[in-house]
Amino acid sequence: MMRRWMIVAGLSFLLAACGGGGSNNAPPSSLGSAITPGSAPPPVAANQVGVIVDAGPSGTSVNQIYVSVTVCAPNTGNCQTIDHVLVDTGSSGLRLIASAVNASLVGALPAVTDAAGGNPLGECLPFVNGYSWGPVRSADVTIGQEKLSGIAVQIIGLGSFNATPSGCASNNGQAMNTVASFGANGILGIGVWAQDCGQYCANFSTNPQYYACTSTTCSTTKVPVDSQVWNPVALMSSDNNGSLLTLPATTNGVATVLNGTLTFGIGTQSNNGLGSATILTVDSNGELSANVAGTIYPYSFLDSGSNAYFYGSNLFPLCTGQTYFYCPSSATSQPATLTGVNGNTATADFIVGNANQTFNAYPGIHAYDQLAGPGWNGTVDLGLPFFYGKTVATAIAGRSTPAGNGPWLAILTN
Amino acid sequence: MALFGSAGPVMAQLGGDESALPAEAANAKMTLLPAVDHARYKVHEMVDGTGQIRLRQFADPKGKIFAIAWDGRFKPDLSQAMGLYFDEYKKALADGGRVRSRHDVASSDLVVRQFGHMRHFMGVAYLPARIPADVGMDEIK
Question: 20 to 30 Å CA-CA from A168: which of A277, B22, B70, B89?
């Protein structure tokens, strides 16, 4: 997952007169324009859970999609419903920020231990700009009506060990262990992998992700696949081959709230069929190729945990004051095509708008279609704006579906 | 089981000398591959025991390292590879405030561009003032 905060208040500069013309679906820049409020949450079936794009725990989230999960100490009534857990198709596994969980509940979650020494496991989860560190605990987890017993969950930022391993910090830089650093109380990773590390961490004791911790030190360790942190969808008793994330479209590109649905299973029920959607297989990194405005980006991916399109480097002027977003003088159409490893293609056109202009015009919005920023020359990170107005199917690696085994992605129009 | 103790002494690093690379590789438990000579610069690549974490270091004709690049399942030890510049890198990340994933870190003497998600991380770090003439940015990868 990746996320950049949008500065939604306090912008003091005046907008220059913007060159008109050439823009498609650009939100009008006049202040006070009406914003269509989000629709009511849709009803959910047994294999579904409601998701929401809203202000988030800080009140300042933009393009972040959340779900509530209920966590219990195994086989007890010691439970808590955690709201505003980020729905992340770019990772796998459930992680909760320690400060968002009652101490009495965290204290009652048994440690997951390494097979060899029986020592508690800690996990260093790398991100582009840092890392999250915390123990792996066992919990009963309910998502919608799906109940999972005794699954491994990472508790980020829980100071249960002597210290963060030096390798975790020296590889990755800064710690990101707080609700503020995620804009969420946790992460629900529902990506293409069944586990967060997989065979690599089962094979190699040098993996810099899983550590066995004594009272004094933590050392990297092999962890069998079964003991790793799993994508909760892959652990469900049925409807466990993937998921469909459905979000409504915005009106004029912006919204204060969007209510959507996460549906478990692909082609297993009457409500999770694929229709005629094109299947885009992805490589072992979860990546496929994107062509945006004639440039090929071979390491591209879909990521509901990113809050914008991040791609290229200097394609448009950067925004004043928040140089991690683009601020073109007028909204610019970007014709885009995704090509799966299987050669299938899907249209993925989007628009890059002027982030500062839009957030000045609509200070109360938490969804914005045209938010984009610079990334990496070879990559398009198609973040949450890409998911608006669509259903995106994520098939888990190695799992059987009516359209063949995962990993693959498919884009369904609502 | 590999013990992660305190970081060893910084022996080769961004801005440092290529002659220290064998010791750096040993310290990082990585294998240093034969250098590839591109005339205007050399590329020294080291790979970890799994073959899935790679770090390339770019040295000018005088043997000074002016850029590094990484690609793999995880990031390599960036503290060792960036050396004296690692603190500047961390500070730049922190200065992003609540910015969750800032790919670019740029100052007058250090530029870092990076990308990544679970199971795949890539990036480059270089010293703009020390890049040999006629070396294009697209060669640093």
Answer: B22
